[in-house]
Amino acid sequence: MDLHFEELLNKVTDFIKSEARTETIVGEPFELGEFKCVPVIKVGMGFGSGGGEGVEGKAKKGEGAGAGAGIGIQPIGFLVTKGDEISFLEAGKTHGLAAAFEKVPDLIEKIVSERNKKDEEVVA
Fold it and tell me: Which InterPro entries does the protein's record reference (predicted)?
């Protein structure tokens, strides 16, 4: 059996390149009412490879090689915009996406409050 270790490594490397794209880390934007949201994602990768050969007695020879890669994807938060305001809503480590969506009402209240303050300053 003829092993092509470099070819195997190239395939694993190509896989990692195809998965570690900007679109993987910064997700597709979506709208939530008046807010435009962009998910931000943490991507972790691992890679390993190895090979070897051996001889048993005079006639038996063996060889082998292997490679592998793994990817973990976790949402860390959202960039949220409304008008000229931009905020980052962090997704809690223990609550994931649910924590980010729980903060949306607070963000709305904060933006409205800041806007009211600006309007009051203009009037005064």
Answer: Spore_YtfJ
Provide the 10 A C-beta neighbour count for residue 89.
21
Q: How is residue 82 written in tokens?
A: 């409304």
Question: How far is it, in rounded angstroms, from Cα 97 to Cα 91?
Answer: 6
pTM: 0.44
**In whole angstroms, what is the distance from residue 48 CA to residue 9 CA?**
9
Model pLDDT for residues 71-124, shown as the tens digit of each residue: 787 888 888 888 888 888 887 655 556 666 667 777 788 888 888 887 777 776
Sign of the Cα torsion 8, 13, 17, 20 reads positive
DSSP-assigned beta bridge partners for residue 39: 78
Question: Which burial class, exposed, middle or buried, applies to 94 when counting CB atoms under 10 A from its CB (0-12, 13-18, 19+)?
Answer: exposed
Q: What tokens were used for 43?
A: 């991507």
